[in-house]
Amino acid sequence: MCGRLNVTDAPGVRALCDTLDIELGYEPQIFQRYIGAASKVSIVREKNGKRIMENAIWWLLLEPTETGFKPSRYTSINTRYDSLNNPRKAGYRPFRQSRILIPVMGFGESEYKSGKLLHCHDMQAKEGGLLMAGLCKEWRHSGTGESITSCSVITLPPHPKLQNIHSKSTPMMFPQDSALIDAWLDGTNQQVEQFEPLLQPAIYQDLKIQQISKPSKFNDTLGEPFEIVAD
């Protein structure tokens, strides 16, 4: 699973956002070195025919409280690729109506065995930024009238190049191709069959990898950094 996001205010991330042709005047982008589950993250989506940046809770399923919403008891920071076409799963409708992209500098992964933490790695784009593919949902509170957006990152099967880092899954990194981006973000485009080739694990940019001691301690490094080249 993808357990944390790095959205550093870096030139590469800003340049990537510029290429997405986002409508100005909406929510400012959240820049934070460590964004964990249930925190807010800036997503790019199309809404009412406009491509906007919106801040969403990184936890797709929410539950109402008396005064607002809280994360559901069901963990939903990630949506598995093999649930996207199952009508009984939470990601089925968003996959057809509310796909998103998240511009980031990088992401983090932790490997566990029998509940024990084995190792953690911090990964960044060697140059520029990365696009993470995900889904979003809109929620409206029946009592307060509050509207809120939640999101998840789509996860794919493990990538052979990342097996020693995380053996169970790979976050869905998205190619920085304008035609594919347009098709992905188009909320009226429900021809999801065209996205099947993208649901195979792929690395589209060279990555810099650094082992760290704990997920939240990205400055506490272990060993020397190394690189993984794009596919």
Entry summary:
By secondary structure, the protein is mainly beta. It has helices at 11-19, 92-97, 178-185, and strands at 4-7, 32-36, 40-47, 50-58, 62-64, 69-71, 78-80, 99-104, 106-113, 116-125, 130-140, 147-156, 170-171, 207-214, 217-228.
Structural commentary:
One of its GO terms (molecular function) is peptidase activity. It is an enzyme of class 3 (hydrolase). Keywords: Covalent protein-DNA linkage, DNA damage, DNA-binding, Hydrolase, Lyase, Protease. By secondary structure, this protein is mainly β. The protein has a single domain, classed as SOS response associated peptidase-like (hypothetical protein yedk fold, Alpha-Beta Complex). The two termini are 20 Å apart.
What topology does this entry show?
Blueprint: E1 4-7, H1 11-19, E2 32-36, E3 40-47, E4 50-58, E5 62-64, E6 69-71, E7 78-80, H2 92-97, E8 99-104, E9 106-113, E10 116-125, E11 130-140, E12 147-156, E13 170-171, H3 178-185, E14 207-214, E15 217-228
Going by CATH, the homologous superfamily would be SOS response associated peptidase-like
Number of strands: 15
Helix content: under 10%
Helix run count? 3
How many domains comprise the coordinates? 1
Structural class of the secondary structure composition?
mainly beta
Order of helix and strand elements from N to C terminus = EHEEEEEEHEEEEEEHEE
Low-confidence stretches: none
EC number: 3.4.-.-
Protein name: Abasic site processing protein
Organism: Planctobacterium marinum
Keywords: Covalent protein-DNA linkage, DNA damage, DNA-binding, Hydrolase, Lyase, Protease
